[in-house]
Structure formats: C-alpha cells, structure tokens
C-alpha cells in the first residue's frame, strides 16, 4: 500500500507513523507536516524525530501549511505539551527536511504514480490536502482513498461541544476535501474513544523494549493524563493510529456509508461534521464513517508492529 501521511505530531500522530513504519505491507512514500497540535516548525521537527526514533532516517519529510485557509490558528499544547511530543527526552533530528513544499510533493506524487494507487492519510488539519486539491483539481480522481482521523457525531466534539480538533482547526479546508469526490474513510471520535490507552496496554508496549516502543510509552504516559482527567476513564483515546490500523486490518472496524457535511459558518457549531448516520436526508453518501472498533485487536496490532522497528 502506497501512502502519504499528512500530520501535525502529536503523540498519537507518533503512534500512527510508527505503526506505518513497522508494517511491511505499507510503502510510506513521504510524510507531510501541517500546523495543528503545535506550530509548523515543531510539527516538521517532530515528524523527523519520530522517524529517527524508529530507525528510519530515510523517510522523506516535507513542511507544509503554517496555518488555516482562513481565520486564526488553533493549537493544542494543553494536550500535547509545549513540544507536541512531551514525554520522552527529545533531540534535534539528524536529517533535514526535504526541499520544496508539502503541497507540491502531494501533487507531484499523485500525478507521477499510477492513478488510484496512492492513499492519503491526513491525521491533522486538512489544510495541505485542500491546498493540493485547489492547486491541481485533477488529483481528486487519482487518489485511491483518503483515510483520515477527524470529526465526531455521537461523541460530539473535543475542542468545542460540536467540533473535533482536526476539523475545527481548518473547517474550510475540510469542506473542500469532503466535497472533492475522492473516496473518504473517516475515523471520528466515535471510534477513537473506544481505543483507550489503559495501563495494561501500555505495559505490553513497554515489554517490547526497543527504542521506539519505550519512547511511545513515555509519550502515552504524558498524553493520557489529560484525557484521564477530562473523561474519567482508564486511559485516553489513541486517535490517529486508527487510520493506519484500518488500512492494515479493516476487519477490526465497523462503519457505514453516510453523507457528511462540514459546518463552516455558524459561530456556535463551526467545524462540526454533520453525519447523516440514519439516512434521514437524500444527500449523497460521500464518506465511509467508522463507528466501532475491536480495541484489543487494535492494540495487539500496534504492539506487534512496534516490535518490528529497529
């Protein structure tokens, strides 16, 4: 599977990247970064740190959009810490960013690879993907699928009562992506809140013992403290790696085709993903919305693939 991960790392983004790097079924063509959980300078740094922790300094990493299409940038240091990867001891990555802009890399890759063979995995705000679609609309028909983490419906929002962070950070970009006509799989809060970083699951990752797994444990121990306090659960949701897990083992998940529209104008519900789960409108079904997951199977997969990393 040829994929591009578009990301704003983030500890859960780190888990997604490590899961991809530890999976031989996946050919990670590159990582593109976007401002989100922390500003672009840090997300571009963090992506390279994660690759280096995983023993993969060969991965191409590109910097992209440094803010949303419109409005003020929203960040989430209160969740992820000042660096975005608080937990383990961090370092300056030993390999540089690639020359060129992330948006151009996305376009060039989709135009050069055979049509329908490259999947985009956005796990941050959708700014880079929207900019690529605006700059070269032809890519919409060449994307195999867009498998994204974002939104919520029954679970509502996590940054406002109705909006999930990735969509809220750039709802105008999300509206462009959801209307582009490319096949979309959406992993919303409804499913990510069912894969919790409980202590026994963290201990199984710790037992892997390699550099990547031990770094992941420190990230998760920092990251979960916010959600444990917020939700009162044993562990917090591990959002972003559900995208990679769905690619690898879709049988772990359940969902249905729905119409999904993005609210961009309401001051009360801006960034909401309006999911017609029950089919009460005649709007076209444009998104495969995932609503449930086998949490134990998900963590078994993540732990197994972390063990593959040098």
For the structure shown, list the relevant keywords:
310 residues, alpha/beta, Inosine-uridine Nucleoside N-ribohydrolase, Chain A, eight-stranded mixed sheet, two-stranded antiparallel sheet, 12 helices, 37% helix, globular
Outline the structure in words.
With about 300 residues, the chain is α/β, with parallel strands linked by helices. About 35% of the residues lie in helices and about 15% in strands. It has one domain: Inosine-uridine Nucleoside N-ribohydrolase, Chain A, CATH 3.90.245. It contains twelve helices and ten strands. The strands form two sheets. An eight-stranded mixed β-sheet has the order 3-2-1-4-5-6-10-7, with helices on both faces. The protein has a two-stranded antiparallel ribbon with strand order 8-9. Helix 1 crosses helix 2 (about 40-55), helix 1 (about 10-20) runs antiparallel to helix 10 (about 210-230) and helix 1 crosses helix 12 (about 295-305).
Write the layout of secondary structure elements.
Layout: E1 2-7, H1 11-21, E2 27-33, H2 40-53, E3 61-63, H3 77-80, H4 102-112, E4 118-122, H5 127-135, E5 143-149, H6 165-168, H7 171-178, E6 184-187, H8 189-192, H9 199-206, H10 211-231, H11 241-248, E7 253-258, E8 260-262, E9 273-275, E10 287-293, H12 295-306
Parallel strand pairs: 1-2, 1-4, 2-3, 4-5, 5-6, 6-10
Antiparallel strand pairs: 7-10, 8-9
